[in-house]
Amino acid sequence: MSKPIKWILGSIVVLVILSVVALVWWGQGPTTRLVDGSGKELTAGSGPASNGPGTGEEGAVDPLFGPVHAQMEAKQYAAAKEALLRILEDSDRDGEACTLLCDVTRELGQVDEAVDYGLKAVELLPDSASAHLAYARAIGLQLQEQSQSLAGMLGAIKGVRLFKAEAERVIELDPTDTYARMMLVFTNLAPAPIGNIERALELAAEIVPHDEVLGTRLLALCHHKNGETEHAIELCREAIAEFPTEGAYRVTLADIYVDEQRFDEADAEYAAARLGGKDGEYYRSLYYQARWRIENDTDCERAVSLLEEYIAGDPDYEDLPYATDALWRKGRALQLLDRVDEARVAWQQSLELDPGNKRSIDSLAATAK
Predict the structure, then answer these.
(1) What residues does 55 pair with on adjacent strands?
(2) How many folded domains does the chain comprise?
(3) CA gap 133, 327 in Å, rounded
(4) Per-residue confidence (pLDDT) for residue 35, from 0 to 100
(5) Distances, alpha carbon 258 to alpha carbons 78, 106, 293, 305, in Å
(6) What own/partner pairs with CB < 8 Å and gap ≥ 24 does 162-165 have?
(7) Quick one: three-class SS letters along 60-97?
(8) Phi and psi of 310, rounded to 5°?
(9) The domain spanning residue 313 has which CATH number?
(10) Residue 105 to residue 117: CA distance in whole angstroms
(11) Does 286 fall in a domain?
């Protein structure tokens, strides 16, 4: 399970403790002033409302947004933000520009800006699935940050309702969507009143016709969380038998085995997931095979080795844990091995990549001499 997804299970379990208080906070959603930085009133513009922002007919790249898309693909997010702010000033395509600004500022870690641009985007383009998805993802990141402290939890609880509403709106506008459904699956795996396991199962089944691998993995996970672990395992085994080179099914099965503390079987599946080459599932298996060792304080030398391969590979796949998180986990493994000086080096390296990484900051403070 990847970082952009894991916050939902990890953070929401904590948030549910305050769920009764949340009922007081759940009211009308936020509003925003539809003006740019100079105070100019924003307009929806003449671009498409339902296709991806900056696309023309049949997905052709719009000349106005083409350079921005190229910058985003190259991860040149600061340059993309500058270009989009100019577009916001000089064109009437404000809805599309705000949608892309939401994505860009989210990638830059400018979370409050991302949420504001997302809100502007959905107000300007209320029938755009792309705008609602961008807004939902920004809210999700904001929730992740807020849930790191007790002070932010009340706002985070209120935000879960808005997050779910935006993701459901994406599905309403785009019946073929898989990403919003995936986010909602994990949200609905949280305890009630936030979660709803029946809705999670329904959403996972809806994904299967559009992405069989993702849908089957999510169905297995839902059945496991619903107490139907043997059924979940059987789903994975059937998928592996049909698609033996698809590492995703093996990683999912390994994750279930870890939950069941069947660690030898988990290790075998993680290793088998790496037989198909160095794709996203290869690196995912490295990370999670190391993680279970660290969480159980077992064979941490092996965990360090697995994480070093992960970090050296610098995988560039969506939804994989960031290198800064892998470095924090490496430091934790070294700490468990009583190699504290080496652990501190790993945490410092983590902060070089992400100065705001709270776990590395806290770990360094806790081990200060």
Answers:
(1) 61
(2) 1
(3) 30
(4) 62
(5) 40, 32, 10, 19
(6) 162/29, 162/30, 163/136, 163/139, 163/187, 165/29
(7) CECCCCHHHHHHHHCCCHHHHHHHHHHHHHHCCCHHHH
(8) -60, -50
(9) 1.25.40.10
(10) 9
(11) yes
Whole-angstrom distance, CA of residue 346 vs CA of residue 188: 35
Mean pLDDT of 210-224: 97
- Give the span between the Cα atoms of 259 and 263, in whole angstroms: 9
Whether residue 325 lies inside any domain: the answer is yes
Report yes or no on 89 lying in a domain.
Answer: no
Q: How many CB atoms lie within 10 A of CB 208?
A: 15
* Token pair listed for 182: 């995936």
| 219 or 59, which is more confident | 219
- pLDDT, residue 56, reads 43
| Residues in a beta bridge with 35 | 41
Please indicate, yes or no, if residue 361 is contained in any of the structural domains. yes
User: Which sign does the torsion angle of CA 252, 256, 261, 266 carry?
Assistant: negative
Q: What is the pLDDT of residues 300-353, one digit of tens each?
A: 999 999 999 999 999 988 789 989 999 999 999 999 999 999 999 999 999 999
Which range marks the domain in which residue 362 is found?
Answer: 277-369
Per the prediction, the chain carries an average pLDDT of 86
Encode pLDDT of 96-142 as tens digits: 999 999 999 999 989 999 999 999 999 999 999 999 999 999 999 98
Give me the amino acid identity at 314: D
What is the C-alpha to C-alpha distance for residues 15 and 71, in angstroms, rounded to an integer?
Answer: 37
Name the token pair of 333: 């493994």
Instruction: For residue range 35-67, list pLDDT tens digits in order.
Output: 655 566 776 664 444 445 544 444 565 789 999
Report d(CA 326, CA 320) in Å as an integer.
10
Tokens of 368: 């200060």
Q: How far apart are CA 119 and CA 83, in angstroms?
A: 20
pLDDT digits (tens, 9 = 90+) for 68-94: 999 999 989 999 999 999 999 888 899
